[in-house]
Amino acid sequence: MADLEVHNVTVSYKKKVAIKDASLKANAGEIIGLIGADGSGKSSLMHAIAGVTRFEGEVCYGGVSYRSPKEAEQLKSDIGLMPQGIGLVLYDTLTVAEHLDFFADIRNIQKNEAFKTYRQKLLHMAGLTEFTNRQAGKLSGGMMQKLSLICALLHRPKLLILDEPTTGVDPLSRMELWEILDGICKSEGTIALVSTAYMQEAAKMARVLLFDEGEIIASDTVKALIDSVGNYTYEQTACENERCFSFDEHTYSLEPLHAPHTEPTLEALFFVNALQKGQTLPHIEIEARESQDEVPQVVMEAKGLTKIFGDFVANDHVSMNLHGGEIVGLLGANGAGKTTFIKMLLGLYPIDEGELYLLGQQIRSGKDRQKLKSKIGYVSQHFALYKDMTVRENLLYFANMHRIAVTTALSRINRYAKELGFEDYMDYFPHELPLGINQRFSVAAAMLHEPVVLFLDEPTSGVDTIARAQFWQILQGIKKKWGISILITTHYMSEAEYCDRVVLMKEGRKIADDSVKVLHAAHPDAKNFEEIFLEYYRSKR
Amino acid sequence: MNRVFWAILGKELLAFLRSAGLVAMVLYSFTIDIYIAGEGIQIKPRNVHIGYVDETGGGISQKILTHLHTPEFLPPKRYRSQKELSRSIFNKETLVGLVFDREFEKDFRQGKKAQLNVLLDATAASQSFTTLGYLQNIVLDFSELDLPVAIKTHKLFNENADNKSFMALTELLSVITLLIVILTAVVFVKEKEEGTWEIMLLMPVDPRLIILAKSLSQVFIVMAGVVLALGFVVFGAFHAPMNGSFWAFMLLTFLYSFSSAGIGLFVAAVSNSVLQVAQFSIIIMMPLIFLSGAWTPVYAMHPVLQVLSFFSPLRYYIEGSESIFYRGTEWIDLWPYFSGVMLLGALLYWYGFRKIGKLF
User: Fold this and answer.
1) Which of A380, A400, A402 sits opposite B198 (nearest CB)?
2) DSSP summary character for residue A135
C-alpha cells in the first residue's frame, strides 16, 4: 500500500462539479505534479486531500483514512498547505523572523536547538538569512513565495500540498523554489503535491497528473506520458481531416498523416485528448479589415518612461518602441512593472517622467489622446466585461460607444463571432462561459472599431493549453491579415516563442529587448526561452 | 450626444433590471418601508398600558377610568397597592399609573381640590406625556369650572389630524434621498470593482456624456419608484390629500433627485468598493436628513443648526412637498422651494461632477 492513496474523490460546489472521481497514489519522498488550466479541478482536489473542504470518496494517509475535514483533523500536524496566490498567507507588516516565530507558535513547536538549526537551514535554503528583519510587504514576489514555503515547512509536514507556488514568480526564484522543495522531499521523506501552470516544471516531478475540465485525463511519469502521444504527433503539415490540429510547429492527428513524426511535448497530451473526446477545434481564419487605415512605421515610441508610487519605482526609465505589423511580447514576473507600463501607454496612469509618442504624435495631455482612442484597442487583465449583459449586448454596447453604424456593427459582430469561434455563446452571460471564450470575445470587443494597434494585458493567464494555442493563432491571423501591431504582456516565458520581438522586464527595468531569432542565436546552449531568461536574470542581478 | 448617450442610459437601466437584489431593495424601500413608517411611527398614544390603585371604593374614579378606552388605551388594570403599581411600572408592564387615594372622592364631593396622583414612565416620553394630556382633558370635563373662554378648533390642511400620510410622505422623501445617492454611486463604483472602468476611459466618448447618462438613468429609476410609492402607499393606503399640483411635485422631485445624484457622484469619486459607498453615503446623508427638519422642526433646533439647515437641499424639498400636498400652494408661490433646490442642487451636482470627472 502506498503512503498516500486517494480513492474516487469528488468535490462539488452547489451544482458545479469541480473534480470528479480523482484517484492517485504517492510514496514518501515523491513530488507529484498537478497540471491543468484554471478551473480544471486542481485546487479542489488539493483542498480535499488537505482536509479543508467537504468531499466524497476517501483519502488514506499513513494508514489513517478520512472522508471529511473532521476526520482529517487528527492528521493536521502532518499536513502543510500553501494556498494559491502570492503572499496570501503572509502578514505585510510582520518581518521574516516574526513570521517564522508566529507559525512556530501556532503550530506549537518546541523552540529547542533542533528547531533552531532547522530554522537556520530553511532560511539559508530560501536565501532569506540576510533579510530576517525585513517586513513581508517589502519583499519581492519570489521572496514572498519562498517565505510562504518555509513557513509551511516549519512543522516538518510529511504531506506537503502546494497550490501553484510558482505562478507569476520570476524564473530564478522559481528554480530556487524547486531546489528547496527537492531538498526537503529527499531529506525529510516528504510527499509533495504541487500544482503548476507551467509545463516545463513537469520535468522535476516523479509523476504528473493532467487535469482537464474537472477530470484527470492522464497520470504517469513525464516520459511515459510523452511517449503515449508520440504516434499522433507530426512535424507541421497541412491537416487532411477534421480530427487534426496544428500549433507551434507540430501537427496532432488521430489518423495517420504522410509526414514524419516528431518529439512531442507535454502540451501534446491536451491536444490529443481534445481530439479523442471529439471536440472540434475550429480552424481560425481572420479576414482583412474593412477600413484601409495606414499602419505607421513606428506605432509607439516610449523614451525613459518612469512611474513612481510613493517611494516605490514601478517603472524606471523604460524605453521601447513598437513597429507596424509586429507582435511584441512584454515579459516578466508579477510585479516586474508590465501592467504599469501598459497603463502609462494608455493614459490610465499619468506619466511621471519621459516622453511618449503614439502613432507619430507626442502625448502631453489627455486631449492628445482623445483623437487616438479610436485607433487603439485594449484588452485588460481578467477580461473586464459587463457581467449583467450577454455577449451580444456587450459587443453592441462597445460598438455604440465607438459610434459604429448599426448595420456595420451587426455584420462585424457576426463575422468576429464566426472567425473567433464564439458564435454559439452569443446569448450567454460572461460568467457562464469558460475563460477561453471570454478571452476571445474580449479581443473581439477590442477589435470592433478596427484599431491599428492592440494592447493586451495578460490575456493568456489562467487559460487552458488549447485555448491559449487558439488565441495565439488568432493573434497571428490578425497580424497577417490586418497588418496591425500588437503589444502583449505575459508571465509565461514560453510564449516568447510566438512573438516577433521580446522585451524582458525585471523589477521595473528593461533587461532585454531583441528579436526571438537574435536571442536564440546569442544563447545557443539554451533549450528554450525559459533558460534564455534565466541567464538574463542571473547576469543582471 | 444622442446615440452614445442613449446606449449608456439603456445599458444602465438594463443592468439595474437584471440585478434582482437592487430591484428588490428599491421596491421594498418605495413600498413596504414607507408603509411601515406611516403605519408604525405613532405619536398619538396607542395600546397604552394603564394601571391604577383605587382606595375610594369606586364612583368618580371608575367614571374617569371608563374614558380610557381602545384604541388609545388598553383596559386599565387594577393593582392592590401603590407598591405593586410601582413595581409594574418598573418592570415596563405599565406605562401610566393612576392612584386614587382615600381622600380623592371625599374631596371631590365636598368641592375641595381633589388630587389625582399620576405615575409616568418618562422613558417613553412622548407617549406618556400625550397620555397625560388626555387625562387632563378628561379631568377637565369633570370639573364644573365655568371658564369664560371656550376653545373651538379648526384643523387646517389635514382635517383628520392624521399623521400617517404625513409620516409616509416624510419617509418617502428620505428614501428618495438615500436611494438616489447610493444608486448613483454604485453604478460608478461597480465599474471600478469589475475593472470595466478602464475600458470606459479608453472609449472615444466625452466623459461628461458618460457621467450625465449614468446619473440620469438612476434618476429615472428613482422617479419610477416615486410614482409607485405615491400610487400604492401615500395615496393608496394612507389617502393623503393632494391639494396642489401633482406635476409641481414631480418636477420638484426630479430637480431634487439630480442634486442628490451630485452627492452620489462625490461618494463614487472617493470610494473604491460598494461597501465604502454604503459607509460614505450614511455618513454624509445622516446630517443632511437631520438638518432638513424631517425629524425635528427647524424652528426647534439650536440656532447654529438652524443656520446650517439652510444648506440642506432636503429642507427645501420637504417644505416644498408639504406645501404642495397639504397647503395646495400655487406654482408661483413655490418659488422659494424650487430656487432652494435648484441652487443647492446645481452646486452639489457641479461639485460631484468635477470630482468624478477628474478620474477620467
Assistant:
1) A380
2) B
CA end-to-end span of chain A, whole Å? 47
Choose the closest CB to A348 out of B198, B203, B205: B198
Does B196 contact A376 at a Cβ distance shorter than 8 Å? Answer: no
pLDDT the model gives residue B144? 62
For residue B289, the distance in angstroms to the closest alpha carbon of chain A comes to 33
Domain range list for chain B: 2-41+163-357, 50-142
Over range A167-178, report the average pLDDT: 84
Q: What is the mean predicted confidence (pLDDT) over A155-168?
A: 89
Q: Do B136 and B130 contact (CB within 8 A), yes or no?
A: no
Those residues whose C-beta lies under 8 Å from the C-beta of residue B276, and which sit 6 or more positions away, are B189, B270
- Tell me how far apart the alpha carbons of residues A174 and A119 are, in angstroms, rounded to a whole number: 21
Residue showing cell 468535490: A11
Q: Give the DSSP H or E segment for A13.
A: strand A4-13
Q: Is the pLDDT of residue A488 over 90?
A: yes
Residues in chain B with pLDDT values less than 70:
1, 41-44, 143-147, 157-162, 360
- Distance set, CA A282 to CA A286, A301, B99, B264 (Å): 12, 37, 93, 48
Closest CA in chain A for residue B358: A366
- Taking alpha carbons only, the member of B167, B160, B231 closest to residue B33 is B167
- Whole-angstrom Cα distance, residue B65 to residue B98? 9
Q: Are residues B321 and B348 in contact, defined by beta-carbon separation less than 8 angstroms?
A: no
With CB atoms and an 8 Å threshold, state whether B202 touches A346. Answer: yes
Q: Output the CATH code of domain A298-539.
A: 3.40.50.300
Residue among B15, B198, B199 whose CB faces A388 most closely: B15
Chain A residues with CB under 8 Å of a chain B CB are: 343, 346-348, 366, 370, 373-374, 376, 378, 380-382, 384-389, 393, 397-398, 400-403
pLDDT confidence of residue B131: 82
Question: Quick check: bond before A69 cis, omega within 30?
Answer: no
Q: Domain spanning A4-220: which CATH class is it, in words?
A: alpha beta
Distance from C-alpha of B310 to C-alpha of B287, rounded to nearest angstrom: 12
Query: All 3 cell numbers of residue A61?
Result: 494517509
pTM: 0.79
> Cα separation of A275 and A287, whole Å?
26
**How many whole angstroms separate alpha carbon A446 and alpha carbon A440?**
10
In sequence order, which ranges of A79-170 are alpha helices (DSSP H)? Answer: 96-106, 113-126, 141-153
Q: Which residues of B touch A397 (CB under 8 A)?
A: 7, 11
Check whether A159 has a pLDDT greater than 60: yes
CA distance A35 to A265: 13
Q: Which residues of A touch B209 (CB under 8 A)?
A: none
Choose among A348, A382, A388: nearest Cβ to B201.
Answer: A348
CA distance B137 to B135: 5
Are A35 and A222 within 8 A, CB to CB? no
Chain A residues touching B3 at Cβ < 8 A: 400, 403
CATH class of B50-142: alpha beta
Report helix, strand or coil for B293: coil
Whether chain A has a CB inside 8 Å of the CB on B23: the answer is no
Indicate yes or no: CB of B196 within 8 angstroms of CB of A382. Answer: no
Does pLDDT of A288 surpass 90? no
**φ, ψ for residue A319 (rounded to 5)?**
-120, 135
DSSP 8-state assignment for residue A95: B
**Which residue do the cell numbers 510558482 mark?**
A166
Cβ contacts of B19 on chain A, cutoff 8 Å? 388
Grid coordinates belonging to A273: 485528448
- Domain(s) labelled CATH 3.40.50.300 in chain A stretch across 4-220, 298-539
Q: Which residue of B has its CA nearest to A403?
A: B4
Distance CA B263, CA B281 (A): 8
A chain contacts of residue B187, beta-carbon cutoff 8 Å? none
